[in-house]
Design brief:
mainly beta, globular, 16-stranded antiparallel sheet
Length: 563
């Protein structure tokens, strides 16, 4: 009998110590995935079938209950309780959320309008984390409007018995600030006047934290910069002196190699070498090569910053590209002049293109032979997105025009225009993103290479079709391209935790053989997608289906948001 008791005790201790799966119950406001992260575990997504559910030893549960209760309090549930039990060989954590704290009144005293920065209205659940974040937004807002010293007296009075919160935002700004003396410390290879030309402020200008952020971005846009510090922390009354310290890479020669894969081009291989401070003052000189199953090129380039937010660059190279129905080889040279006038960006270019079309199976649409085109190009861009890699709000507009006049330097008189726009708007459930594109080319005299036409289909176009496979085809089944295109995309991007997002999208495409597409013949795609966040942009997998024929579909894989 004694032996049986000892065995029973040993088995009981073993069962208690064994890790068990976890189930949450009663959590109506905060989902399971978020609570898993609170206790330091990660719940697998539905498609991670190879991963088992996270487990926990029962003896470690009690300290975690306090973490869950505190997390609920940080979101306005001051009376939340958590307890645990073991049922059917799993740990069940039961949450009693109870009545949250509700906002009863919000009062503001502020010379500048801050209502849109306050995340609360009467009746909303009071969220301490949102309250703290709103104070940061108000300070940033004032710093962007010339006030470097702001007295921010914010209070949240919480009546726990009545579950009511009374919030006060009292802002007392100082006199408007201006930038004081600007001191620049740079290595010998970079003249201070070059760094000064990249700044978006001068001594005596109205103070703004936003122009400092823009200056950071423009300085770091120079590849030779290793680190920059813009110190505006020491104030002299309403004057803000600025100390700028810049360092360059001690080894300016930079070698890159890479490999990847996309559904459009297949395997991608690339390599490059660049001197990031050639003869000083952040001038760059580089050589790069890229190969994929569809295209390959080798290119030499040079770039230099100029005063007043201008840049000059030039490149020369050779390209080979395989199209369905013909091959194309090109020798390309280009000179560029760029101007940054935030939020506007301008570029003027002169492009020389010596293209040879060969291996054509359709001489009418893809005539073999050599064409030389000398084209001036002008472009304009305004970018008001909150992020380049993963935008959640704002917009971006672009306009580009190029053309040529038939002469001894060019084999065609033509013009080509391309207009694009994207808009992103956040919602409580995620982000809604819209993109529009219009392009047209008109050949008035002579001929241009067939690749100058518009080809649709692929991850950056209509996702129900493979790369360049949408539109009219010749007798061999090869796409012949279009002389005009209008495309639109709507995407709903819904977060699934901190790393994943699901996407639902619809693409629409119109094509034409004149400067206006045939708007009576739409090609519409719908489909789902998934995104995985990485430091270089999200890894994306999309499946697009033709709404008129669901048997027609395409799978796309790429890195980075499409727009």
């Amino acid at each position: 009998m004694v032996r049986l008791s000892i065995v029973f005790l040993i088995l009981s201790q073993f069962l208690i110590a064994a890790a068990l799966p976890i189930k949450f119950s009663g959590n109506h406001t905060i989902d399971d995935r978020e609570l898993y992260e609170v206790i330091g575990l990660k719940k697998p997504y539905f498609f991670e079938f190879w991963k088992s559910a996270p487990k926990l030893e029962p003896k470690k549960v009690n300290p975690l209950l306090t973490l869950i209760e505190n997390y609920y309090k940080s979101h306005g549930f001051y009376h939340a309780k958590a307890k645990s039990s073991i049922r059917k060989n799993r740990i069940v954590i039961e949450v009693e959320e109870n009545e949250p704290i509700r906002v009863e009144n919000v009062s503001t005293i502020s010379p500048l309008p801050i209502d849109t920065l306050i995340p609360f209205e009467k009746g909303d659940r009071f969220d301490p984390e949102k309250f703290i974040e709103s104070k940061k937004r108000i300070q940033k807002f004032y710093a962007n409007h010339q006030y470097c010293n702001v007295k921010l007296n914010t209070k949240a009075f919480v009546d726990i018995e009545k579950n009511r919160a009374y919030i006060v935002y009292d802002v007392t700004p100082n006199d408007p600030c201006v930038f004081g003396k600007i001191s620049i410390h740079a290595p010998e290879s970079v003249e201070p006047k070059i760094i000064a030309s990249l700044l978006h402020f001068r001594e005596g200008d109205p103070y703004s934290a936003e122009v400092i952020r823009r200056s950071y971005r423009e300085i770091y846009a120079n590849e030779g910069i290793e680190r920059v510090v813009i110190d505006d922390g020491k104030h002299d009354g309403n004057k803000v002196p600025v100390n700028i310290t810049v360092s360059v890479y001690p080894k300016p020669v930079h070698i890159t190699t890479g490999a990847g894969f996309s559904s459009d081009e297949g395997i991608n291989l690339q390599a490059g070498i660049k001197h990031r401070n050639f003869f000083g003052n952040l001038k760059t000189l580089g050589l790069e090569a890229r190969y994929s199953q569809v295209k390959a090129f080798v290119r030499a380039s040079a770039d230099t910053p100029l005063p007043n937010h201008n840049r000059a660059s030039a490149d020369i190279g050779a390209k080979r590209e395989i199209y369905d129905g013909y091959h194309e080889r090109s020798l390309l040279a280009r000179i560029n002049l760029k101007q940054s006038r935030y939020p506007h960006f301008f570029q003027e270019s002169l492009i020389y293109d010596d293209t040879t079309t060969s291996d054509s199976n359709d001489p009418e649409n893809f005539p073999n032979g050599k064409l030389r085109i000398l084209s001036p190009l002008g472009s304009w861009e305004i970018d008001k997105r909150d992020s380049v890699l993963e935008p959640t709000k704002g917009y971006k507009l672009q306009a580009e025009g190029m053309g040529s006049y038939k002469s001894e330097f060019s084999d065609a008189t033509y013009y080509k225009v391309l207009l694009t726009g994207a808009y992103h708007r956040p919602f409580p459930w995620g982000v809604s993103s819209v993109r529009l594109k219009y392009g047209a080319i008109k050949v008035l005299q002579g001929k241009v290479p067939p690749s100058y036409r518009f080809y649709a289909g692929g991850m950056n176009s209509n996702r129900a079709y493979s790369y360049r496979q949408l539109g009219p085809k010749n007798g061999y089944g090869d796409p012949i391209g279009a002389y005009s295109i209008t495309e639109g995309t709507v995407e709903l991007r819904i977060p699934m935790g901190s790393s994943f997002k699901t996407v639902v999208f619809s693409d629409i495409t119109y094509l034409g053989q004149t400067t206006l597409p045939d708007y009576g013949k739409p090609y519409i795609a719908v489909g789902p997608g998934i995104r995985y966040k990485t430091p270089i942009g999200p890894i994306a997998l999309d499946a697009g289906f033709d709404i008129d024929d669901l048997s027609r579909f395409a799978i796309h894989f790429h890195i980075g948001e499409l727009f």
